[in-house]
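Handout, section B. The chain below has 274 residues.
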Amino acid sequence: AVVQENSKARANEAQDAESIQHDEQHEIGNEKAASESGLKVDGNSNDSERSESGFLDWLEKNVNDEESGENERVDCEGVPHEKLCMVMFRLLKKYHVTRILDTSCIKNARSLTPAIQALARRTYRVEYICASGSEQELESIRNSLVFEESAVSPAEVSYLKLEWWQKKSLFPPELDMVLAWDVLAHAAYGRVWRFFENLVESGVKTVVFDNYSGERNMPFAERLTINVRRSPFNFVNPQDIVQNMTSEVIQFNRQLVLYTKELVEESLNTTTRK
């Protein structure tokens, strides 16, 4: 009986060692995958100490702005699209965004920098993910130094190659918002549909894009507008809407609309049933 018990104990120890080794390999594999995707990977050692220290540093730097009310304002003067900058800052605050992915940051970076900077002064650990389907575009935005540390500190900026129009091309986890400004109006309808499917499957909380009210959808490559409220999309009403975002180039009624994950999912299901 004693021999049997010792044998069982040794077998259990061997099984536990094998399980620990498997878990360690799995964690290493996850870290490698995240690193290769372009996302920052934090180590496990002293995470709580670094997090506490980082928060205290952030608090010390921004406490004066908080007391003066400075962190409730944003200065968008001089950026290419001042209204986009101002509206996005309001939405980022309203929906408590700390992690945002921009599908066209090469177009939006200069307009959004003041909004991201202002958000980072009032919210701890803001992350802006600059995404593009082109490595050349990502390299271009890196080299332009739009997001140099002095411009967006203390926000974190990362770069990610993402072909959002591909089937099952999922977005990073735990995104509060995806911005697709001046993107969907120029994409094929099939790509637009997959964009929304990938959003829902990835669990993205909110999505912001430009919509053109009153316009009919035209399935031509050279089109400049999209209206998700009309066929073939037939989306439900958005959660938030800002009128008169019309640019100088496009003379249509350009709206900024925000959909929650639940509203996108409802819209996709409704359109499928039709």
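Note. Confidence is low (pLDDT under 50) at residues 1-9, 16-48. Compare this with the example in section A.
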